[in-house]
Design brief:
The chain is of the alpha/beta class. It contains eight helices and six strands; from the N terminus they run αββααβαβααββαα. The longest helix is centred in the middle third of the chain and has 18 residues.
Length: 205
């Protein structure tokens, strides 16, 4: 397949309940998901339908981090299930991967109104959840999708044009920034560029 085929008011994240045994990765992720769904740490809780945590496999070698949920994700409670998500699935399928091979989440867990970029205060409010997800999944490789996710994780202000096609590092984990699938829906001519980046990812995997 080639380019033409994808044209909790509870304990803080990572802290088990007092007096309880250590949680498994799956149990802790489930606990953090409940915290996300109950979170009122920023103003987005008042406009969202629900918090959107993750989908995919907790044992995955590849973790994919996007920006924020959209309208479809807000309704369904799962990340990347709308048009951009279907394109992402096609991109992954083009290099022989599907949902069981990846773990997918966003830097912000609630939909910003009108699908605007998340504000820094919203990113800061969600950051402990993302940090703990990365720690628990412990992926071999991280792919960031789009500018907000890439700038946030890599703590830089570079453009996507400067980041794409290059490897970076986050806590010794290789990071490959890719154009967001939503951008590719608006600029399909960039799919050829992303196909080259996907080949880099495939070689690393």
């Amino acid at each position: 397949m080639g380019i033409e085929d994808f044209i909790l008011p509870s304990a803080p994240p990572g802290q088990p309940p007092t007096g309880g045994e250590a949680l498994t990765v799956e149990q802790e992720l489930a606990d953090i998901e409940q915290q996300v769904k109950q979170c009122t740490g920023c103003g987005l809780h008042s406009t969202r339908t629900q918090g959107v945590f993750a989908r995919g496999c907790p044992d995955a070698a590849l973790m994919i981090i996007g920006e924020a949920p959209g309208a479809d994700e807000d309704r369904q409670g799962r990340p990347f299930v709308g048009r951009a998500g279907r394109l992402l699935d096609s991109m992954l399928l083009a290099i022989g991967l599907d949902e069981k091979d990846v773990y997918i989440t966003n830097i912000v867990k609630s939909r910003p109104p009108g699908n605007r970029d998340p504000l820094q205060e919203e990113i800061r409010a969600c950051r402990p959840y993302l940090d703990r997800q990365i720690e628990l999944i412990n992926p071999d490789i991280i792919v960031t999708l789009g500018l907000p996710a890439s700038n946030t994780l890599l703590d830089n202000s570079m453009s996507m044009g400067d980041m794409r096609g290059r490897w970076f590092s986050y806590k010794d984990i290789p990071v490959l920034p890719l154009y967001h699938p939503a951008y590719l829906l608006r600029a399909p001519g960039q799919k050829a560029v992303v196909w080259e980046d996907l080949k880099l990812l495939l070689e690393a995997l």
